[in-house]
Amino acid sequence: LFSGLIISSYRDNGVKAIENLMQKRGKFDYILLETTGLADPGAVATMFWVDSELGSDIYLDGIVSVVDAKHGLQHLTEEKPEDLVNEASRQVALADLIIINKTDLVSGEELNRVRTFVRSINGLVKILETQRSRVDLSHVLDLHAFDSLSGISLQKKLEHIKTTHAHLDKGIITVTFEVPGNIKEENLNLFIQNLLWEKNVKDKSGRTMDVIRLKGLVSIQGKSHQVIVQGVHELYDLEETAVTWKEDEKRTNRLVLIGRNLDKEIIKEVFIATVREKQGN
């Protein structure tokens, strides 16, 4: 697990409290952690993601966000001061599962607008629609969104996902691209670190590209299995999946980025330039 931040050796109080509770009452099957409406789920997610690397019994399964079908668009389209991200849009961008609730309070046309707007922000997310927050827990649990098991479902999603367009000038969008061939792991790390840590990749207007969520499947030289790329803010990880590259299969690299000021062509050019320049040395 790679991070552009210095990670303290002391675990977060929230994680320690849950672990202490597990010791007293025995292990839980699942833990559902609810945050406030204005919280950044990415900060909470990275806390548990990092902690799993430190040997904790707790692991991050996925991020679920709820969107109000009646008032959701109002919050998602609310404009914020310069350089601030709309909290509702950030929560949608980080989600692995979106539950659109109160569908009985809107028309089919209104519901479709909400659904379309959510997709414009996060092209990868799974959407469930319900009333009175009634959802079968089997759809919420065991998402495996942050481990190698998600590579199998991600492979199918990547074949159909498309780059989206922002409804607002500063809106969050999904960008995806594909580059064939094998790449070196060190070159991939350099590309991701320039994007997430150094933040020196800019759009045509000179604005820094702000990546909130990163996912992808890549072909690393010397590895027979597909490698999944996961990123939340400055934190990212590379992990081999159970899916092997077939002998006659065309090896390729597919990445999906969700964030602000993203320019597909520039990101793809930087990716290719980083890989080719370093491989040529």
UniProtKB/TrEMBL annotation:
Q: Which SMART domains match?
A: CobW_C (SM00833)
Q: What is this protein called?
A: CBWD1 protein
Q: Which PANTHER family match?
A: COBW-RELATED, ZINC-REGULATED GTPASE METALLOPROTEIN ACTIVATOR 1A-RELATED
Report the catalytic activity.
Answer: GTP + H2O = GDP + phosphate + H(+)
Query: Which key words tag this protein in UniProt?
Result: Chaperone, GTP-binding, Hydrolase, Nucleotide-binding, Zinc
| Stated family | Belongs to the SIMIBI class G3E GTPase family. ZNG1 subfamily.
Keyword Transport attached: no
- Entry keyword annotation includes Nucleotide-binding: yes
Q: Coiled-coil regions in this chain?
A: none
Q: Which Gene3D superfamilies match?
A: CobW-like, C-terminal domain (3.30.1220.10), P-loop containing nucleotide triphosphate hydrolases (3.40.50.300)
Give me the gene this protein comes from: Cbwd1
For molecular function, the Gene Ontology terms on record are: GTP binding; hydrolase activity
Q: Cross-referenced InterPro entries, in alphabetical order?
A: CobW-likC_sf, CobW-like_C, CobW/HypB/UreG_nucleotide-bd, P-loop_NTPase, Zinc-reg_GTPase_activator
Q: Which GO terms describe its cellular component?
A: cytoplasm
> Which residue intervals define the domain CobW C-terminal in the entry?
172-275
